Amino acid sequence: MLELIELYEECEHSLQRARSGPRERVSGSRAIGISLREDVVTARADILGVLASWAGTVAEARNVTGPGRRDVRELVRFLADNLDWLLGPATAGDFTSEIIEVSAAARRAAHPDPVLRTALGVCPAPDCHSTLYSEPAGSRTTGHHRIRCDAGHDWPPRQWLLLARAGARLPLTSHAGAVA
Ligand SMILES: [Zn+2]
Question: Ligand 1 centre and the CA of 101: distance in Å?
Fold first, then answer.
């Protein structure tokens, strides 16, 4: 769930890159111009909406005070504090599927360049049927890749052999050293 903060900020950076003209803060501004990509704006709003909605649910059900502000970090911190309850039988299914959904949408919005991504098959994580991708990590010239799926499972290099055994089509021929 902490990844949501990262994604939220990636969306914000993506908006800042897209904007021409003088810099202004994105948050709190409604007059943000027509150059903004709608999917990014929507993804950010959806992250906040889902987090705030669950914070409200928790606050009401547990009779505690939720975050006073609609701030992504405060909301995530509050939800993390109540994660045991959220992952209880009454809410776990809805909560996790909504978090996964907004994460995936934000990731697609923040990283719209599909050319750099290579589909590797289906993510082997339990109950995950999302597409697994390799994509450049860090500087595009270093040749390093990261592997993750649309739902947000991040597979570090030490697990790539596991992925290969699970049937993923890993592009290992040119990066075989990374597996060792
Ligand atoms: Zn996955």
Answer: 12
